[in-house]
Amino acid sequence: QVQLVESGGGLVQAGGSLRLSCAASDSIFSINTMAWYRQAPGNQRELVASITSGGSTNYADSVKGRFTISRGNAKNTVALQMNSLKPEDTAVYYCKLTVLQRSYWGQGTQVTVSS
To answer: What region, left, alpha or beta, does residue 15 occupy, with left being phi > 0 and alpha being psi -120 to 50 degrees?
Structure first.
């Protein structure tokens, strides 16, 4: 069972930056997609950004130009650089791995942006 471990959440003022990281516990099949989702209280979980093993990326309109998703040198890691943070970015952020038609989720990390 693959486990995803997230780190990097915290409290930051509006306009600040945070970097989230996620690592899979085991070696994973080389063809996969990793993504970040977020869920604010009372809202559904939504896609923030995704990246394929080939490097193709996709972003939610609300974060384009502010967030950057990237793979680490170890192909089982992914990071989310978040700049120009806004209070509406406050949420629990989850890492997701999709490989061989199966999905795995991390436990989530809290990001709080104060105004």
So the answer is: left
